[in-house]
């Protein structure tokens, strides 16, 4: 099948297929007599593997490791499990970081009066003036700048 058909069958865009070939993540495709890339069902299966790994947040380097393990029939499942557990740890770390971002933005948004005045704790924080932003009222009446 050609690259368009392989893209459709695998869910990986033709552009990404070319990128994965260029970076060596997947082997270069065979070529037709006219010079067009051709893909076998095995190569499409590999592309599906890559797509699923990307969907799970694995980096290209980690996907290369997973592909090597996938191809190695003498692999130890413990090696695959270790990569998965490492990925889980990384995802949990990212989730915590994103939860911290949400909490910070919620805090800043709650402190913004949202009125016609120019003072804004959100913008002050973004410009690095967080030390100048303090809460003016425990009732949540707003934030003020000192």
Distance between the termini: 67 Å
Predict the CATH topology of one domain.
Answer: Multidrug-efflux Transporter Regulator, Chain: A, Domain 2
Strand order of the largest sheet: 1-2
Tell the overall outline.
Answer: elongated
Helices, by number, come to 6
The CATH first-level class of one domain comes to Mainly Alpha
Poorly predicted runs are: 131-146
List the quaternary state of the chains.
single chain
Largest sheet: 2 strands, antiparallel
> How many beta-strand runs?
4
User: What is the percent of helical residues?
Assistant: 55-70%
Q: What average pLDDT do the residues reach?
A: 89
The radius of gyration over CA amounts to 25 Å
CATH architecture of one domain: Orthogonal Bundle
Structural class, by secondary structure, is mainly alpha
What proportion of the residues form beta strands (DSSP E)? 5-15%
Helices and strands, in N-to-C order? HHEEHHHHEE
């Amino acid at each position: 099948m050609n690259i368009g058909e392989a893209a459709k069958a695998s869910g990986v865009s033709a552009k990404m297929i070319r990128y994965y070939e260029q970076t060596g993540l997947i082997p270069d495709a065979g070529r037709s007599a006219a010079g067009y890339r051709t893909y076998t069902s095995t190569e499409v299966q590999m592309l599906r593997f890559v797509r699923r790994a990307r969907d799970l947040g694995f980096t290209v380097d980690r996907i290369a490791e997973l592909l090597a393990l996938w191809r190695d029939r003498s692999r130890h499942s413990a090696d695959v499990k270790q990569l998965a557990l490492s990925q889980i740890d990384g995802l949990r770390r990212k989730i915590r970081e994103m939860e911290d971002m949400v909490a910070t933005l919620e805090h800043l948004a709650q402190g913004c009066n949202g009125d016609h005045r120019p003072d804004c704790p959100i913008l002050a924080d973004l410009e690095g003036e967080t030390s100048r932003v303090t809460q003016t009222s425990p009732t949540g009446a707003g934030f003020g700048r000192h």
